[in-house]
Specification:
The complex is a heterodimer.
Chain A lengths: L1 E4 L4 E4 H18 L4 H10 L4 H25 L5 H28 L2 H32 L20 E4 L4 E4 L1 H17 L4 H10 L5 H27 L4 H22 L4 H24 L6 E5 L3
Antiparallel strand pairs in A: 1-2, 3-4
Helix pairs in contact in A: 1-2, 1-9, 2-3, 3-8, 3-9, 4-6, 4-8, 5-10, 6-7, 6-8, 7-8
Chain B lengths: L1 H28 L4 E5 L3 E4 L6 E9 L4 E7 L2 E12 L2 E14 L2 E5 L3 H4 L2 H7 L16 H17 L8 E2 L1 E3 L3 E8 L6 E11 L2 E14 L2 H11 L1 H22 L4
Parallel strand pairs in B: 2-12, 7-8
Antiparallel strand pairs in B: 1-3, 3-10, 4-7, 4-11, 5-6, 9-10, 11-12
The chains are: A mainly alpha, B alpha+beta.
Chain lengths: ~300, ~260
């Protein structure tokens, strides 16, 4: 069944897009990540212009993170105060990212910027996760490994504007969560991803937040940064395809339910190892595209672009 | 929402009516040596649109060759060239063209080189080599030719410029017809369908028929709002996504 996408101005197979939404939803339910990092490259692969893939993905992530945060909210796993501080930085980061996005689009460098950020972030985070999870699996087999310190003090904890976050039992500078939020917001705008795969480790290792609160709180603030990104992308770059977002959403929501069930059968480090393999594979594929000679060296952009 | 679609449809029909009138008047001036019309003057892009075919048919007042030139709305376009920088393929040089048709195809009753001489082809922009694109920069001719070729190649890959010439088929001596195919990614706007009657290497009669490609229905509304009320569009997209996410979360609550 073919469906015409009004903003992307192309006709796609609805079942294919629903299937892609299902697959990414399945993986995100299984591993507890947004899955945007997989969806944007997949959309580009089926011929959606990168700019529209990113803008639409932001819209779809709003829905995904709302449905995700509900479950965490019911269990009380959301630190609203910390989330709001992150959000302050997040909105600034998003606005900055959308602005940069527009400039790069006019310069004709947006495609390479998107690909490069993907290769960099996915490569780094995926590589780190791969090392960490394989070590954890090895350590499980040899249980003599010693335990690290619970709480380390680095220069980041000496920053001004200290705030108390009761829910997370933290007393830290407000600049820290705001800064993390700002980086996350920029990723939403430029890469079309929620940034959970970057926010979660940052909140665990830089803020020393209780692990139980991390997923819920990061999802909570991702709702607002993706909403802001959708609004700004729609208003300034007109790259949000509501029809495409709707199709992805339906597939994604159903896939996520199956993924969550499948995820309970996996142990934490096994899930992380599997996820990091996928992340690294995507990074390698994108890097390959960047360095291999394209079939046609010329590209065409209609309009003022 | 409905009123937007209605207004659009009315506008499209009104524009079409005016153009048809103009077209008929113009045809009369040419003393009816050639009469041609389309099976449809409006291509409606609906949600289920996957491309369509329009039949052009007509009659001549005697033996001769017919060439059909279909030109989509003209606009500007940028062609960018990738070069290897630090091992990566990155856009570097670019060239702008101001008069690029969004769609272009030609159908003839005989191969182009047997039809007429080069000056006539150029005057009527028959055939891709004769298509005027309005380059803006004063690049050196060789560079310009490379960018121009790349533009046409990209358009051909998208299915918007014809790879080969269509065939105008004659039924008997006077009646002719040809099928024009429009793919799913056809740009919207006003198209010019030009039918030329050629005798002894000269164009003796021509008729221009308008064709409107327009988004109709849901996809038209979405596009309209996104273009003209982008903030409203963004707000609706966000609110819709929140509602959808909430509904999904509530529906699967037991999980």
């Amino acid at each position: 069944m073919q469906v015409y996408l009004p903003i992307a101005e192309m006709s796609v197979n609805a079942l294919l897009v629903l299937g892609m939404g299902w697959l990414v939803g399945f993986l995100s339910g299984m591993f507890g990540v947004g899955g945007g990092f997989l969806m944007t490259p997949l959309l580009i692969f089926i011929g959606v212009p990168p700019a529209i893939a990113v803008g639409t993905q932001a819209n779809q992530l709003v829905a995904a993170s709302v449905s995700g945060v509900l479950a965490h909210w019911r269990r009380g796993n959301v630190d609203v105060k910390l989330g709001v501080v992150m959000l302050g930085g997040g909105v600034v980061g998003t606005a900055f990212g959308v602005w940069i996005f527009g400039i790069l689009q006019r310069l004709g460098q947006i495609d390479i910027a998107i690909t490069l950020s993907y290769v960099f972030f996915l490569g780094t985070i995926g590589g780190m996760m791969l090392v960490e999870s394989s070590r954890a699996i090895v350590r499980r087999r040899a249980p003599t490994a010693r335990r690290g310190k619970l709480h380390r003090h680095i220069w980041l904890h000496g920053l001004p504007f200290k705030m108390r976050f009761h829910r997370s039992k933290l007393y830290i500078s407000a600049l820290l969560p705001a800064g993390i939020g700002a980086v996350g917001g920029m990723l939403v705008a430029i890469m079309g991803i929620g940034g959970g795969f970057l926010l979660v480790p940052a909140m665990i290792y830089l803020l020393n937040m209780p692990a139980g609160l991390v997923a819920g709180t990061s999802l909570f603030q991702i709702i607002f940064t993706t909403a802001a990104a959708t609004l700004l992308q729609a208003a300034t770059n007109q790259t949000v395809d509501a029809m495409l977002a709707l199709l992805l959403l339906i597939g994604g929501v159903i896939g996520a339910q199956f993924g969550t069930k499948a995820g309970t059968r996996l142990r934490g480090e096994q899930a992380r190892l599997l996820l990091s393999c996928i992340v690294v594979a995507v990074a390698l594929k994108l890097a390959w595209d960047l360095f291999s000679r394209p079939a046609d060296l010329f590209t065409l952009t209609m309009g003022a672009g | 929402m409905v009123s937007v679609a209605k207004r659009r449809a009315v506008q499209a029909v009104a524009a079409l009516g005016g153009l048809l009138l103009g077209g008929t008047v113009a045809a009369n001036v040419w003393a009816q040596q050639l009469v041609a019309d389309l099976s449809s003057h409006l291509i409606a892009i609906t949600t289920g649109f996957t491309g369509t075919e329009v039949v052009l048919f007509g009659t001549t007042d005697g033996a001769g060759d017919v060439a059909i030139v279909v030109t989509g709305p003209r606009g500007s376009a940028t062609v960018r060239r990738k070069e290897r920088i630090a091992g990566m393929w990155i856009n570097t040089d670019s060239a702008r063209f101001e008069q690029v048709p969004g769609f272009y195809t030609v159908a003839t009753s005989r191969p182009l080189d047997q039809l007429v001489g080069r000056p006539v082809l150029e005057r009527h922009q028959i055939g891709l080599p004769q298509l005027q694109l309005g380059p803006r920069e004063t690049l050196d001719p060789q560079e310009l030719a490379a960018f121009r070729a790349a533009l046409i190649r990209n358009k051909q890959r998208a299915g918007l410029y014809a790879l080969t010439f269509g065939q105008v088929a004659f039924l008997g001596e006077r009646l002719f017809r040809t099928n024009i195919y429009f793919p799913a990614n056809v740009p919207t706007g006003l198209y010019n369908v030009e039918a030329l009657l050629i005798r002894d290497g000269e164009v003796v009669s021509a008729q221009t028929t308008p064709l409107v490609v327009s988004k109709i229905g849901f996809s038209a509304e979405v596009y309209d709002i996104a273009r003209h009320r982008p903030i409203t569009y963004g707000v609706v997209a966000v609110v819709g996504a929140i509602a959808a996410g909430w509904a999904a979360g509530a529906a699967f609550r037991r999980v």
